[in-house]
TrEMBL record, chain A:
The lineage of its organism: Bacteria, Pseudomonadati, Bacteroidota, Flavobacteriia, Flavobacteriales. NCBIfam families: SAM_7_link_chp. This is DNA metabolism protein. It holds the Pfam family DUF4130. It comes from the Bacteria. It comes from Flavobacterium silvaticum. InterPro entries: DNA_repair_put (IPR023875), DUF4130 (IPR025404). Residues 83-254 form the DUF4130 domain.
From TrEMBL, chain B:
This is DNA modification/repair radical SAM protein. It holds the Pfam family Radical_SAM. Keywords: Iron, Iron-sulfur, Metal-binding, S-adenosyl-L-methionine. The keyword Transmembrane helix does not apply. Residues 60-189 form the Radical SAM core domain. It comes from the Bacteria. InterPro entries: Aldolase_TIM (IPR013785), DNA_rSAM_put (IPR023874), Endo/Exo/Phosphatase_dom_1 (IPR051675), rSAM (IPR007197), rSAM_sf (IPR058240), RuvA_2-like (IPR010994). Its cofactor is [4Fe-4S] cluster. It comes from Flavobacterium silvaticum. One of its GO terms (molecular function) is metal ion binding.
Length: 258, 417
């Protein structure tokens, strides 16, 4: 068994794939350097990310299965999960080593694993499209803190840019400590190190004096609406919780006043 | 001021909630002019405690109504608080909610005040203002008011993504019983008019670039279930007819929630028929996505859907001679008919078997409901069966599975605590 240790970047993962062909090794366990614990029997190889190598792998991969399907591998990468990294590694190798159409051989373990991981990361992406709640700040910017299970900001930037084209907004991932800022023209990546009150674990809401005058009323109206559109005779909390798991409640305006 | 708008919203959201349509898909409106919003696949922004999706701001313009339909909470004779939004209030709420990512758009309905045209004209004024003055590209679902003039309907169709008009009761007889002032004819007329216009505008858009969109997400309707004594067969045959005649995108089935002491209907406090509603939706899905003809599921010898098992399983047990199906050779249509195999799994099986004969462990990983499907399929590692499958045994076996969601007691009884 060979252990490849990469730096945890997508470029590093693709470089690892390049090097398995370069060194003609097959049976490879992939580790990222944060999580790697040297074992006794492993033959360890440290992978240094190399743009030229990773570009070659990515180009060949896109050429083989098309941009859209190749993109799924990147989506899975955003799960930040060690097991998922291994699946991406195995999947890309399997596609390279097999004939046309192998990416839809759902009888193959790495194909079905990539499919399932892609579904879970996409589900989280979709949830963020649904659960993000903006609060309008006094300076007019709409602000939303989030704590997604996976690193989905890169997957939702375009969606929010198109939808909220005429308002400035910030979406901030308090877990990963970076965010997106849209200035009516472009979306840029930002990081706060000053605003303590929006750090994970503390109060997720902005204090009143930072908010626009109308923000509180809209929050209350949304709560009124949420309560009145419910039909008590049909109460089904199990279903409610399945669709809106408790870990998301912290940032949901409709759960704020309940 | 803020108290008054909160009170109005409470009243007019409460009055609108019995319309169960929640869809916000099929709009495909792009935000090209740096305006606000777009619409495409639909998003459920939250779910109420009854487990229903909240996608749109669903409100009535007013709950004043000249009609007295027994099943409706806003009926003339009902003693409830009445309110009405101004055009500006409805527009501001929609914009304010949308900007904060609470909603996908607006679902606007209304009680009939004064007359049909007067009401429809007000509704159109709101959507027109949203689209033209506020450059709002979010989703708009607009109710068609029966009896409104064709001119108003045409104008409405140019701004709305979806329009709908409710049949209310599944049959004409049921409707006459509870709402003698109304008829299904009155519903068919505008459904047909809008349907023709949709077709015309689509044809036009083939010739003229940038022809305006007209109700791009199509039309839908709703029937109240369980207020009147129709059989499931009558309900679904009626739904099927409307799907065919008017190319509807959706028919919604709304279990009647008792809101009246009227002796013609179930008494207040009796349970809404939630399980029955669910079975009707399952049937609806089988018709639209699984290639079933409604007559295969419901007919004179089976006029009502089973309570304890779903309609697809029920069909399979009645037609056991089609099973077991060999997943490695069966055509796609037949894969879709296997209980426990959905559209997604059927497609996966279809693709994966090109690479070799599939075994049960692979099928399980694809996400098929194995406990149900195993009785109806053959795969590479199936052992030989000596006897023909026995439907009674299969049914008992499935029902006795610990993790089965089908139990012998109807599940529409809610827990007390």
């Amino acid at each position: 068994m060979n252990a490849f240790v990469f730096d945890g970047t997508f470029e590093g993962l693709l470089t690892s794939i390049f090097e398995t062909y370069e060194f003609k090794v097959k049976d490879v366990r992939l580790f990222d350097n944060l999580r790697y614990q040297p074992g006794l029997i492993d033959e360890t190889h440290e992978v240094i990310s190399d743009k030229a190598k990773s570009d070659r792998v990515w180009k060949a991969f896109v050429k083989k299965i098309g941009k859209q399907k190749a993109q799924n591998a990147y989506t899975v990468f955003l799960s930040e999960d060690a097991e998922a990294f291994q699946h991406i590694f195995d999947f890309i190798r399997y596609v390279f080593d097999s004939g046309e159409g192998a990416e839809s051989n759902f009888g193959n373990p790495s194909v079905i694993a990539i499919h399932k991981w892609e579904r879970s990361v996409s589900r989280e992406r979709h949830r963020m499209k649904a659960f993000i709640r903006f609060e309008q700040m006094a300076d007019g910017i709409y602000y939303a803190p989030i704590e997604p299970d996976f690193n989905v900001l890169p997957l939702i930037a375009g969606f929010f840019k198109n939808r909220y084209a005429d308002q400035q907004w910030i979406i901030y991932d308090t877990k990963r400590k970076y965010g997106l800022f849209y200035d009516l023209e472009n979306v840029t990546e930002i990081a706060f190190d000053f605003a303590e009150n929006i750090e994970s674990g503390t109060t997720p809401y902005l204090s009143k004096n930072l908010l626009d005058d109308k923000q509180e009323l809209y929050g209350l109206l949304w709560n009124d609406y949420f309560r009145n559109t419910n039909i008590p005779a049909r109460k089904n909390m199990k279903l409610h919780l399945r669709h809106v798991p408790k870990r998301y409640w912290k940032y949901l305006t409709e759960k704020k006043h309940n | 001021m803020s108290d008054r708008i909160r009170e109005k919203l409470s009243i007019l959201a409460d009055a609108a909630k019995y319309d169960v349509s929640c869809s916000s898909s099929g709009g495909n409106r792009k935000n090209t002019d740096k305006g606000l919003g777009d619409s495409s696949n639909g998003i459920c922004h939250t779910y109420t405690e009854d487990g229903r999706c909240v996608s749109l701001l669903k409100i009535l313009l007013t709950n004043h109504c000249i009609y007295d339909c027994a099943f409706c909470v806003s009926r003339r004779s009902n003693d409830v608080q009445r309110a009405a939004f101004t055009v500006e209030e409805a527009v501001d709420l929609t914009m304010g909610f949308y900007r904060r990512n609470y909603i996908e758009g607006l679902f606007l309905s209304s009680g009939i005040f004064k007359d049909a045209d007067f009401t429809m004209e007000r509704l159109v004024r709101i959507v027109k203002k949203l689209r033209l003055e506020h450059k709002f590209n979010g989703y708009i679902h607009l109710k068609t008011i029966p009896g409104a003039s064709p001119e108003l309907l045409t104008e409405a169709g140019l701004y709305a993504d979806r329009m709908s008009i409710n049949l209310e009761m599944p049959t004409e007889a049921g409707l006459k019983l509870l709402a003698p002032e109304k008829s299904h004819e009155e519903v068919k007329k505008p459904l047909g008019f809008i349907q023709n216009s949709i077709v015309q505008y689509k044809d036009e858009s083939k010739i003229i670039k940038r022809a305006p969109k007209f109700v791009p997400a199509g039309q839908s309707t709703q029937m109240v279930i369980g207020a009147t004594p129709e059989s499931d067969m009558e309900i679904m045959y009626s739904a099927n007819q409307y799907y065919k005649d008017f190319d509807l995108k959706r028919v919604y089935y709304s279990g009647y929630i008792p809101i009246s002491y009227d002796t013609r209907m179930p008494v207040i406090g009796s349970q809404p028929p939630l399980l029955r509603e669910n079975r009707l939706y399952q049937t609806d899905w089988l018709m639209r996505f699984y290639g079933f003809d409604v007559k295969e599921i419901l007919n004179l010898s089976n006029p009502n859907l089973d309570v304890d098992i779903d309609p697809k399983l029920s069909w399979a047990l009645r037609n056991i001679e089609h099973f077991p199906v060999d997943v490695n050779t069966a055509d796609y249509k037949m894969l879709l008919r296997i209980p426990g195999v959905g559209v997604g799994s059927a497609k996966k099986i279809w693709q994966a078997r090109k690479f070799g004969r599939l075994r049960s462990d692979q099928l399980r990983k694809m996400g098929i409901a194995w406990n149900r499907a195993k009785h109806f399929i053959r795969c590479a590692d199936s052992v030989m069966m000596l006897n023909d499958p026995n439907p009674f045994q299969i049914k008992n076996d499935i029902l006795s599975q610990g993790d089965s969601k089908y139990t012998k007691v109807a599940q529409n009884q809610l827990a007390l605590f």
